[in-house]
Amino acid sequence: DALAVRNLNLGPGPGYLIFDPFLTLNLSGLENFVNIEYLNLTVRRLQNGVNLNGLVNLKMLLLNNTLLNDIDLSTNVSLEYLEIGNIPDALSFTQIENINLSTNPNVNLLSCEGLYTLREINLNNNNNVNIPNMRINLNTVLGDTFPNVCIQIDNINAALNNLPPYNSWTINGNYFYSENCALSTEKFINENIKIFPNPAKDF
Known about the structure:
Structural class: mainly beta
Low-confidence stretches: 14-18
Shape: globular
Largest sheet: 7 strands, parallel
Distance between the termini: 38 Å
Number of helices: 2
Strand order of the largest sheet: 1-2-3-4-6-8-10
Oligomer: single chain
Radius of gyration: 17 Å
């Protein structure tokens, strides 16, 4: 019974044992698992996309190395943890440029390790003040240069003046804050990096 399922692990498991990374997964009917809280699709070939609409109880989502180039999380209002990057030695790569979490006010951990295509993260969800322990990982895997990622937030003035909640956020990697990433320019990027150095520290 789909309604009874709370955890759904469709990833490879330890050591990638008995796992075919070339198998394209058919996820039709996933929307029926409305009570699911944990979903692992790591290293699954999802080049045709994945429908997460209606999974309002989903709290933890793993999407590393899935061939995705877009993701809609607008109805996953309970989401707290999102892992969407590229891990070493996997054969398929996630290539998402924008992650929109504007309707996900409970997100407090976002791991985008190795997601070299990433340009924007929208955290403008009117709940930043209630997430003082936000952690975001934008690190590379192989030591390559990660692009500057625009993080859209609720209060740019508080962030640039190192005020709560942003003064307790932990962000690894190259980034800058904005209240509107769509209007950001290279000049704005350089000015913000100069004014507000990256306070990166380890998780």
